[in-house]
Amino acid sequence: xxxxxxxxxxxxxxxxxxxxxxxxxxxxxxxxxxxxxxxxxxxxxxxxxxxxxxxxxxxxxxxxxxxxxxxxxxxxxxxxxxxxxxxxxxxxxxxxxxxxxxxxxxxxxxxxxxxxxxxxxxxxxxxxxxxxxxxxxxxxxxxxxxxxxxxxxxxxxxxxxxxxxxxxxxxxxxxxxxxxxxxxxxxxxxxxxxxxxxxxxxxxxxxxxxxxxxxxxxxxxxxxxxxxxxxxxxxxxxxxxxxxxxxxxxxxxxxxxxxxxxxxxxxxxxxxxxxxxxxxxxxxxxxxxxxxxxxxxxxxxxxxxxxxxxxxxxxxxxxxxxxxxxxxxxxxxxxxxxxxxxxxxxxxxxxxxxxxxxxxxxxxxxxxxxxxxxxxxxxxxxxxxxxxxxxxxxxxxxxxxxxxxxxxxxxxxxxxxxxxxxxxxxxxxxxxxxxxxxxxxxxxxxxxxxxxxxxxxxxxxxxxxxxxxxxxxxxxxxxxxxxxxxxxxxxxxxxxxxxxxxxxxxxxxxxxxxxxxxxxxxxxxxxxxxxxxxxxxxxxxxxxxxxxxxxxxxxxxxxxxxxxxxxxxxxxxxxxxxxxxxxxxxxxxxxxxxxxxxxxxxxxxxxxxxxxxxxxxxxxxxxxxxxxxxxxxxxxxxxxxxxxxxxxxxxxxxxxxxxxxxxxxxxxxxxxxxxxxxxxxxxxxxxxxxxxxxxxxxxxxxxxxxxxxxxxxxxxxxxxxxxxxxxxx
Length: 729
Fold this sequence. Notes:
Layout: E1 30-34, E2 37-41, H1 64-67, E3 72-82, E4 91-101, E5 106-111, E6 122-128, E7 150-153, E8 156-163, H2 165-173, H3 202-209, E9 213-221, E10 230-238, E11 243-248, E12 261-266, H4 275-278, E13 297-300, E14 303-310, H5 312-321, H6 341-344, H7 359-367, H8 378-384, E15 393-401, E16 411-417, E17 422-428, E18 438-444, E19 472-475, E20 478-485, H9 487-495, H10 505-518, H11 522-530, E21 541-543, H12 544-555, H13 561-570, H14 581-596, H15 602-612, E22 619-620, H16 622-631, H17 638-647, E23 656-657, H18 658-664, H19 692-707, E24 709-711, H20 712-718, H21 722-728
Antiparallel strand pairs: 1-2, 3-4, 3-8, 4-5, 5-6, 7-8, 9-10, 9-14, 10-11, 11-12, 13-14, 15-16, 15-20, 16-17, 17-18, 19-20, 21-24, 22-23
Helix pairs in contact: 14-17, 15-16
């Protein structure tokens, strides 16, 4: 090929022929479309190709390897294999599946695997195109396969007896009539007209019912004989060879060897064979599945075995085979002739507890020579142990009751641990009071007073049902009165009101309702006397002091202080005015984390909140607020952030008012007390830490309740007294 001179113009006569001197004139392959399929072909190759298996007019628009991809015809067939080594039969029947792949006309023959067949089964002829017998250029096609036809594949003659639904529909659409399925040769039984019963085939029975066992439960009553007893039996019937074995299940501590066989696996005759029958006479008929049922009695060589029940597999077998629907088990007669060894033994009596250490530890040392640690209630510990901020510890404020006036001013904190039912008592000491404070009684299980302490069995101890405001506890001869509870204890008892009756609002209201019903004109007098004490502007509100005085006059000593607190908390008429200890607690934790993380970017956070509030409503959703807080990198963990979002002010749609959140994060209004890192677990629903400031916090609880209001109308509606309110107004 010559190179053109760039100075000459591109005109005829100014250039040379590039084909001069070229000896190879190969055709470049190009892309073209054949039957709507893009492929790489040569220029001289025809475009309109026709598949090799079909004529031109019947060919589909797409190639067969696309049109019939994964379209397979499936036929069921059999062939007979000659057996020269067996005298009983000249051949064996082998069932196969013939697959015909429409995409390329290949065939595949597979034999399904059968357990215990003794034959090498699986793929018999691999996928390939198979020639017709006595032909070198013709292959098997779709029209050569149909029910009733015989095909010869590599010298084996296969008889087609059935096909699947897809194959039948495909052949019908091609105009091929598909006959009905042909039964397998081994399924054809002799008719009664022939006069010969069907031949028993043990090998076929073994293949069909191998490892299928019917299991019955029964008993053999041998109490009439000397030293006889009741034998509990388990009867196994093997369907593979019609044999029975009977296994005895002795009672516990009976002295008998477990798992002993009463009858080994054998054909169990229906009657005891005679000597002539045993020495060559006619065979004695044996038990079959039709003879076994619940309530049947088997003659086991002179022993009557009664069948009382069976397992689920046996019930399903009789339901399918014989159509039984009722399987009512029979009761086994009680055996009072002999008693088991375990029942005659008396309970082990431990020596009296001497009071040293815990009772569980002393009991374990008495039961064994080798000292072992006492076993704890692990499930209770797992469910009531500390989980995140949920401590499962009920804390109460208490006063010491005695004749010493100095002890009356002492302040105690009693903690009840739900995980192991232990109680710990600590004292909050004040300055210049003469009492140091700190741990008063270590954590231990506290037992009830005035009980016999040094006894073999553990004496009764205080439980969580004894922990309620107003109750008195005697701990180590010290009498404490519970005067208040933290927010977590009150909330926990209200959430589990079915366990704590003092916090169950339904039971409390029912007690008030029954008390008013027992008094003459109790309803009317109760409503009329205290209607004048309601709020002058809001008629539905009543001061807590008047509400409490009204209930005390009606209930007298029938209502405890804890029940009063439950009522006031439930029917609170001015929510939000009282100080929320949970909010202050969470706020203290948040300030501790922000101070530790050196975060002070409130202005940028406010700008981001206002930018996210497109409508200027002053509220944002909880998810959006959490997203913005994480975007501004607040150094608090997700759990603490969730607690903070829960205590913030919200509107009626549960959207957070972000102005309240900015006031919540204002460093100039820092809360009075802070928490250490070890006090994180005391936040849930959520009580303040055990510090000196807690004395002030709980001391203010009574004043908060006294200064608040109760929703008087809601209380009367709960009592079903709203009609009396209308009459008085």
